Amino acid sequence: MKRRILLLAIVLIVFMMLPFFLSGFWIRLLTHTLMFCALASSLNIMAGFTGYAPFGNMLFFGVGSYSSALLMNYLGLPFFLTLPLAGLTAVLFSIFFGTMFLRLRGQYFALATTGAAEAMRHVVSNLDFAGGGQGMTVPYLQGSPAFINIYFYFVMLGMVIVVTSFVWWMSKSRLGYAFKAIRADEEAAGVMGIDTTRYKIIAWSFSALFTGMVGAVYAYWFSYIDPPTVFDIMWTVRMFVINLIGGIGTVFGPIIGAFLIETLSELVWSKFLYLHMGVLGVLIILVVMFMPDGIIRLVQKRKDALMPILQKMNILNDQREKR
Amino acid sequence: MLLQSMINGLFFGAIYAVMGIGFSLVWGVMKIINVAHGSFIMIGAYITYELFQRFGVDPFLSLPVTMTFMFFLGFVIQKYLLNRIVRGSIFITLTFTFGLQILLANVCLLIWKADFRSIRVPYARLGVEIGPVVMPSVRLGIFIAAMVLTFLFYLFLRKTKTGVAINATALNFEGAKTVGVDVMQIYAITYGVGAALAAAAGSLLIPVMSVNPFLGAQLVQRVFIVSVLGGLGSPLGALLGGLLLGLVETTSTVFISSSYQELVGFAVFLLVLIFRPQGLTGKRFF
Predict the structure, then answer these.
(1) Is residue A157 located within the same domain as residue A187?
(2) Contact B85 A283 (CB under 8 A)
């Protein structure tokens, strides 16, 4: 446990130092990857812990980015004030749709959420004050390019830290146990006195809160948003693939998955522009076929096989620590 | 105006129905949400396009070719890939078919580029007058072909041994296995039939609509709506759902702005899903 915290602290310090040694291209790539870490972790709260697949989670990304953009444009609010407000708007949407959809089970829920997100895309495309189908520009951050890169890097890093700490705390709390009980057997969880619908809505609202906030950061970062981009189902698909690769339902799985997928994706994209989507498709198929449990669990399984050896090493280490 | 748009609605509805039946079949029998259905439709459309451009084959005559090709492609995909994961969670198969969808869309993009393509049959200008409205003969032909396909599919499912085995597997997997049905083979056939119907819809679509590789993903959304409207896994339901969606979409443009056309479809979809998740016909299985 102690060693784990030490490791985390080292990783964190490395990430704090990194942008001061890297070029703009790498900082932006890392910021992008961190954004997917945060998005995938938010999805994980719902999909990984309660076992309900919200395939329409891009709804909250879009709602978050649009509410932040509208608040900045019309009320002139500073970005950091719109960030929590964007999250809250997404939460309101999740409660509204959650009360309707969360009586539905499994595949019906997954479909209903995509339907809601698509419907929302069409609604926003018809809202004239939000720019309609043309999209809208967002006031952009003033400063040198280097400053802007580092600024958004740290904002995204902050988002990842917040989401991951929340998931870590949740996985050990009563809330997390309730979610896992719903995933294991919803009827049994109900019989044990868990108000399943309420807990599912809670899980989805946390998922929405963080997804909406990341959406707000995205809007400020790219300073232009339009309905087909922010309500694109590819956001959710990437979140799912990242979770499946890293290990869905684990705290650090989405982060490992995001780094793997985004680095790989960037490599493929720069080398084979026209094959980009095809390679992603093949990758998705391979992951699903051969390691649907994710890397984290794969490593854990190997660890079980190596347990006797590891134990010996641990004992040696422990003795050294005692001395 | 209203009558004309209703006729048009029924026509598009018939194509939606053919799309929806294959999707609904795969979902009902195997619980696979087959997002790749969209790219199967596109492949069907492109094969018809090539046959027409290179050899002048009439789109209606190319139906058997596209359907056979897609049947075997679907059969192989299910037999060697999907059957390994089909008993897992819905979420795994859904992600798989999504991967397949973007892979096939990319293949189409490499071969046919992003241009819009359509074919214009020699008899495109001929029209048939039905009372006060004029129906282009191509559209009438497509409508009839769609209805015939639906009817043949219904007969296949009810009257043939394979069809009955598909029904049995959908109703009770273990039970079908016990009485000697090779369920995995039936799964592969089911997916093949679904793909063949998708290809048929593509062949029927291309004479009246310009297609490009990205259209597949949009069509899948319509297919979702159709199969939810009709109730999952019910061919009769998918027929009704398709006709209804076509009607609602086209007639709504008479009353409200056409930019809301797709929104109307989704609104109907959400309402049905919330208040009547078993679909309008209320049958979950065949």
Answers:
(1) yes
(2) no
What's this model's pTM, rounded to 2 decimal places? 0.82
Smallest CA–CA distance from B275 into chain A, residue: A100
In chain A, the number of structural domains is 2
ipTM of the complex: 0.82
Tell me, yes or no, if A78 comes closer than 8 A to chain B by beta carbon.
no
- The answer to whether B33 contacts chain A (CB < 8 Å) is yes
State which residues form the domain around A313.
295-323
Long-range CB contacts for residues B134-143, cutoff 8 Å, separation at least 24: B134/B4, B135/B7, B135/B11, B138/B207, B138/B208, B139/B8, B139/B11, B139/B208, B141/B60, B142/B11, B142/B14, B142/B15, B142/B204, B142/B207, B142/B208, B143/B10, B143/B11, B143/B14
Cα separation, A91 vs B251, whole angstroms:
35
Looking at the structure, tell me whether residues A168 and A309 fall in a common domain: no
A199 touches chain B (CB under 8 A): no
Same domain (yes/no): A50, A100: yes
Q: In angstroms, what separates the C-alpha of A102 from chain B's closest C-alpha? A: 10
pLDDT in tens, B39-60: 999 999 999 999 999 998 898 9
Q: Which residues of A touch B33 (CB under 8 A)?
A: 107, 110-111
Residue B104 and residue A281: Cβ atoms within 8 Å? yes
A314 with A232, same domain: the answer is: no
Q: Which tens digit of pLDDT belongs to each residue from A61-82?
A: 999 999 999 999 999 899 999 9
- B95: contact with A, CB 8 A cutoff: yes
Based on the fold, state whether residues A304 and A219 are members of the same structural domain.
no
If asked whether residues A256 and A311 sit together in one domain, one would say: no
Tokens 């090493």 locate to A313
Round to whole Å and give the CA distance between A77 and B16: 47
pLDDT tens per residue across span A276-313? 788 888 888 888 888 777 777 777 766 665 544 444 44
Same structural domain, A27 and A91: yes
Q: How confident is the model at residue A321 (pLDDT cuts 50, 70, 90)?
A: very low
Domain residue ranges of chain B, discontinuous segments joined by +: 2-215
CB contact under 8 A, B94 and A100: no
The answer to whether residue A320 scores a pLDDT higher than 70 is no
